[in-house]
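ok so i was messing around last nite and threw this chain in just to see what happens. nothing serious, just curious
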Amino acid sequence: MFIFRTSNTDPKLNLAIEEFLTKNKVYKEPILFLWQNKNTIVIGRNQNTVEEVNIVKAKEDKVTIIRRNTGGGAVFHDLGNLNFSIIYTDVKNNAVSMFEQMLEPIIKTLKDLGINAQFSGRNDIQVNGKKISGNAMWKWKDRFLQHGTILVNSDLAKIAKYLTVDRSKIVSKNIESISSRVTNINNESDKEIDVQEFINLIINTYQSLDSVKELVLSKSDYELIQKIKEEKYDTEEWTFNKHSTFTYKNKTRLEGKGLVEVLLDIQEGLIKNAKIYGDFLGFKGTLEFEQLLLNKKYSLEVLRECVESSDIENIFGNNFSSQDILDLLIQ
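result:
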């Protein structure tokens, strides 16, 4: 296994590094990428930025807002949080079923600190019923990225300050606040630890399980990374998208699956624009499905054909059915 750690805290550059490592098939062995972002809100690939973030407060406090490649919900990163990315080739397409397995070294590291960490729900690591790590995935060809956060000593008040909670999530789960559902390592351990110490402990865990070597990027690698950053992560289009006027809106939280919001612009019976947002965990993204809907007749039969010809599980998550999506598209 390769390990790559960086002292860079620019989220746009870090996400460009992560994308470069994921798409670069020269690496035959798995990669563990350890990184941090300074004062950043990271939006899930399929989320509507303006509904997930208190943009006014974030801009007042000079917080960077950026979209990532993976699905799931919005998160706040500061230097009390650690990000880890596990990147590997997945020829047999087993990655989804390996989600929990890939987190075992992280959970072991937490348990070695005396913290009773457990895999929970769709994508979380919890301690005493509170979330300490959220995780998501993205697949590019036969390369697979699974990444997550670990709250070591993060300012939890800022999570509540900058991120909004959808009302349907509050109603369905009786949630009072964001900060009441998360915790730091240092809130759960008898001994305080800083992020750099925790990074070393993670590396030690991996070294005990596998042969580990440092990954060194070349000057030409960084030139390609900079190109990805400038062409994608530096653009407002990537993070904010273009917002249109939609004539059909349906926003529903499916218990155990996630929030899905469907926006369609229907003109003279044809779908002229389509956008699907949500915190669902499919790793394929919604763009291909949205494009499939364009200029299609807005009818049950046509929409069913579109849904049934699409890779619904990889777009939305392996617990979604075609009927779930069809019910969202037409009422």
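not much to say yet. Confidence is low (pLDDT under 50) at residues 167-177.
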